[in-house]
Structures are given as structure tokens and as C-alpha cells.
């Protein structure tokens, strides 16, 4: 079902609870009573059009409003992606890490295996962090510069430097699969490890990993299908300017 | 067992989505993408390399001859047509054909057959679940951080053989990364924890 502006936001969340973190990233808090999507967006100064495109893109895999999303300023998309990054780094990863650590303190028998999982997760965490930092420090500044060049229709010296040093194709090539290790971790926990004494916690961790993977998929869908094609078009029009 | 990937191309959204929901009951398979745009068919098939393409013949690009040789031989792709004309299967030399009026069971059986046939060809090894002692040995070397070249030199085999073994190990265990393989190796006493690092 397509999410529309006069739906109650509460009903939207009943429809798909995965949207809770998404609306949170827009700075919207729960407790909005019977307000509609458009009311809540207005109150929180969120761009209604962008909000609708994004929640629909999350909610329905087949909904891909390429053209509509293309009309949204790069700045907003980048802003949103940055909020998602922050939530991965500050919340999700450390939550899972904490759970693995508390698993560790349970039973001495299991110590050895849980240490393995923990080390593995640490490895994944630093890989994901590195990936995110690259986007934050290299990719995003670049796409924002591209947008500025388009807007002003001219180059400043600094912009020219940034534009020449990078291209979105480079990003596409290097956009490697950060999900690989995450999937391996899930496989190991499901197929090859006997759960430790606290199996409830162990199960929760696996479910958390599934949710994180799903969320990361949504996230990279926005990067690959919205941001990248948009920037490719912008690059082309800049090359005509040169 | 490797999962078979499926692409569905039809201009009707009822058929695309309906078919996908039916295929959710299919084992060892995954619907990659739904396509509603004829122009994108070639491009998407080439980039996502599905095992099975279920397509309405109207969606096939005009240069079908080229499409067939390139896709089907090149990508080892099974072509399943979606139509209400029985003759169409021969006309396009397709592997199978689904009629709009087919029952769910008929469609599932048909695709299950294609998938099983594919898997039989892909993995001749009968005990696909556990890795052989040769593979264990290779796995050990991988987890010690050796490159393909180094492993080949130490075991007096070609790099090509090492790569093939690696591919089989990954496929059997469902683990891709070196660190994941290391955890597996420790859990199965192929290597001790002190040896790593």
C-alpha cells in the first residue's frame, strides 16, 4: 500500500514497523496522536515530498520513484544518508556489540566461541566504519560540490579541484560489498555454533543482525539508485559547461 | 546448494507481483527483480546475471536472435516464457512455458524441475555439505593468511586449482570472507586459535 500525505502517521507505522527508525532520523518523535503525515512533517519542518518518497521507497521494494526522487536536492539526500550513518555508528553497532559482550559474561564454557564472534564483529564494525567515513569525507563533499557547480553554473578554484579529483564512477567501482561479513556472521551463528546458555539473548542478536542487514540494504538502495544516477546526470551537464 | 536467481519481466503489474508471490514458495530460489520496461531487459539481465528469466515474449527486445545466443549461452540462463500460446515455446526455443491459466502447483513444479536440473549440473559432488580433507588443508592455508600463489607453491598445485577449491569451499559453507572462514576453521579444529594472527 502506498503511503500518502493524509494518512495518519500512526497507521503508517502500524503498516511497517521498520519505518520507526526512518522517521526518527528525520527528527520526528513518537507520540504524534492522530496527526497526519503532512501535519507531522510541517511541525518538524521536514520536506513532505522527500519524506513520502523515502518512506515509500523503504516500504515497498518495487516502488521506485526515480523521476520524483530526482527532483529532490542532493543536499537533502546527503543529509538523510548522514543521519542514517550516524545511527549505525552511534546506535545499532554498539547495541549489538553490547549484547555480544553480555553474552560473553554468562558461562565460562562458551567463552572461547563468544570471543570469536566478538572479534569477528569488531572486524565487521571497523570495516563498516571505514566505508562510512569514506563516504562522509570523500563522496558527500564531492556530490555537494557538484550540486553547487550546477547551481552557480561556474567553478570556484576550490570546486574545480574537488571536481577534478573524483568522479562518481570511481565511487561505483569502489562501492564494495560491506554486507559480506555481516552475512558470514549470521551464517556462522545459525549453522555452525551451538548457542550458549543464554540462548534468548543469542537469538535476539541474530534477529538484530537480520534487521541491520535489511536496513543497510534500504540504505544502499537510496545511494545506488537515487544518488548515483542523479550525480551521473549532473556530471554530464557539467562536462558540457567545461 | 547455490540459490537460483530469477528475473521476471512482464508489462502487467498483476502478473509480475502475482508470480513473485507464487514463487516465494519455491525452494532454493530468489526473485531478484521485476522488470516492466522492455528497454531495460538486456541491461538488467547482463548486470544481474539471473539463472532463470521468466518473460512475456512481448517484452523481448527485437533483436531476439542476438539476445538468445548472448544471454542463454553466455549466461547459462534458462528462458521461461509467459504466454497463452502453447506454440510459443518452440518458436523461441525456450526451456519452458507458463500459461496464464496454470495452477500454482503446476508453475511451482515446472520451475522446481528447472532448478533441480541446474543444481545437478553445477555440483557433481554428492556430499556437498562437508568439505573434503583436501579442502580442509586449503582452508587451513587460507586462514593462515596465505595468498593463492603461496598456497599453490606450498602444495605443488596450480593457482587455478587453488581458486577452484576456494570457490567450492565458499559455496559449501556459505561463508565468503577470510575472517568468516577462519572462525569456521577454529570451530572445527582445522586450526587452533593461537595459530591465527
TrEMBL record, chain A:
One of its GO terms (cellular component) is cytoplasm. It comes from the Bacteria. The lineage of its organism: Bacteria, Pseudomonadati, Bacteroidota, Bacteroidia, Marinilabiliales. Residues 105-230 form the Hemerythrin-like domain. GO terms for molecular function: metal ion binding. PANTHER family: IRON-SULFUR CLUSTER REPAIR PROTEIN YTFE. The keyword Metal-binding applies. Transmembrane segments: none annotated. Keywords: Cytoplasm, Iron, Metal-binding. This is Hemerythrin-like domain-containing protein. InterPro entries: Hemerythrin-like, RIC_family. It comes from Labilibaculum antarcticum. It holds the Pfam family Hemerythrin. It is found in: Cytoplasm.
TrEMBL record, chain B:
Gene3D superfamilies: 3.40.50.2300, Winged helix-like DNA-binding domain superfamily/Winged helix DNA-binding domain (1.10.10.10). GO terms for molecular function: DNA binding. Transmembrane segments: none annotated. It holds the Pfam family GerE. Signal peptide: none annotated. The keyword Transcription regulation applies. GO terms for biological process: phosphorelay signal transduction system; regulation of DNA-templated transcription. Residues 124-189 form the HTH luxR-type domain. The keyword Nucleotide-binding does not apply. Keywords: DNA-binding, Transcription, Transcription regulation. Residues 5-115 form the Response regulatory domain. This is DNA-binding response regulator. It comes from Labilibaculum antarcticum.
Amino acid at each position: 500500500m502506498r503511503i500518502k500525505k493524509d494518512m495518519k502517521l500512526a497507521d503508517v507505522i502500524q503498516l511497517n514497523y521498520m519505518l520507526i527508525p526512518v522517521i526518527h532520523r528525520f527528527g520526528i518523535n513518537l507520540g504524534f496522536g492522530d496527526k497526519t503525515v503532512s501535519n507531522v512533517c510541517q511541525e518538524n519542518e521536514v520536506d513532505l515530498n522527500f519524506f513520502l518518497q523515502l518512506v515509500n521507497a523503504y516500504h515497498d521494494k518495487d516502488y521506485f520513484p526515480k523521476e520524483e526522487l530526482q527532483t529532490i536536492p542532493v543536499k537533502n539526500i546527503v543529509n538523510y544518508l548522514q543521519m542514517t550513518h550516524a545511527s549505525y555508528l552511534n546506535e545499532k553497532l554498539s547495541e549489538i556489540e553490547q549484547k555480544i559482550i553480555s553474552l560473553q559474561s554468562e558461562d565460562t564454557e562458551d567463552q572461547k566461541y563468544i570471543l570469536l564472534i566478538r572479534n569477528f564483529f569488531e572486524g565487521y564494525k571497523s570495516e563498516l566504519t571505514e566505508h562510512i567515513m569514506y563516504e562522509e569525507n570523500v563522496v558527500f563533499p564531492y556530490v555537494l560540490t557538484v550540486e553547487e557547480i550546477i547551481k552557480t553554473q561556474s567553478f570556484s578554484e576550490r570546486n574545480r579541484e574537488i571536481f577534478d579529483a573524483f568522479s562518481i564512477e570511481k565511487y561505483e567501482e569502489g562501492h564494495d560489498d560491506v554486507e559480506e561479513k555481516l552475512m558470514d556472521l549470521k551464517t556462522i551463528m545459525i549453522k555452525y555454533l551451538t548457542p550458549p546458555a543464554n540462548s534468548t539473548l543469542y537469538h535476539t542478536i541474530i534477529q538484530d543482525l537480520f534487521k541491520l542487514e535489511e536496513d543497510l540494504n534500504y540504505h544502499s538502495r537510496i545511494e545506488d539508485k537515487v544518488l548515483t544516477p542523479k550525480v551521473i546526470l549532473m556530471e554530464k551537464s557539467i562536462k558540457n559547461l567545461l | 546448494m547455490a540459490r537460483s536467481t530469477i528475473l521476471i519481466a512482464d508489462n502487467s503489474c498483476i502478473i509480475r507481483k502475482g508470480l513473485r508471490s507464487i514463487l516465494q514458495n519455491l525452494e532454493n530460489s530468489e526473485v531478484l527483480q521485476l522488470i516492466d520496461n522492455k528497454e531495460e531487459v538486456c541491461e538488467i539481465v547482463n548486470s544481474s546475471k539471473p539463472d532463470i528469466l521468466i518473460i512475456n515474449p512481448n517484452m523481448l527486445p527485437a533483436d531476439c536472435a542476438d539476445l538468445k545466443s548472448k544471454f542463454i549461452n553466455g549466461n547459462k540462463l534458462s528462458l521461461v516464457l509467459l504466454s497463452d500460446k502453447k506454440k510459443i515455446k518452440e518458436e523461441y526455443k525456450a526451456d519452458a512455458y507458463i500459461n496464464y491459466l496454470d495452477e500454482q502447483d503446476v508453475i511451482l513444479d515446472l520451475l522446481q524441475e528447472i532448478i533441480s536440473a541446474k543444481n545437478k549440473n553445477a555440483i557433481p559432488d554428492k556430499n556437498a555439505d562437508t568439505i573434503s580433507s583436501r579442502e580442509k588443508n586449503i582452508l587451513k592455508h587460507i586462514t593462515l593468511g596465505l595468498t593463492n600463489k603461496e598456497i599453490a607453491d606450498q602444495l605443488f598445485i596450480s593457482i587455478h586449482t587453488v581458486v577452484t577449491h576456494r570457490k567450492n569451499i565458499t559455496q559449501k559453507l556459505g561463508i565468503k570472507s577470510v575472517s568468516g572462514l577462519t572462525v569456521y576453521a577454529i570451530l572445527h579444529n582445522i586450526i587452533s586459535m593461537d595459530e591465527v594472527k
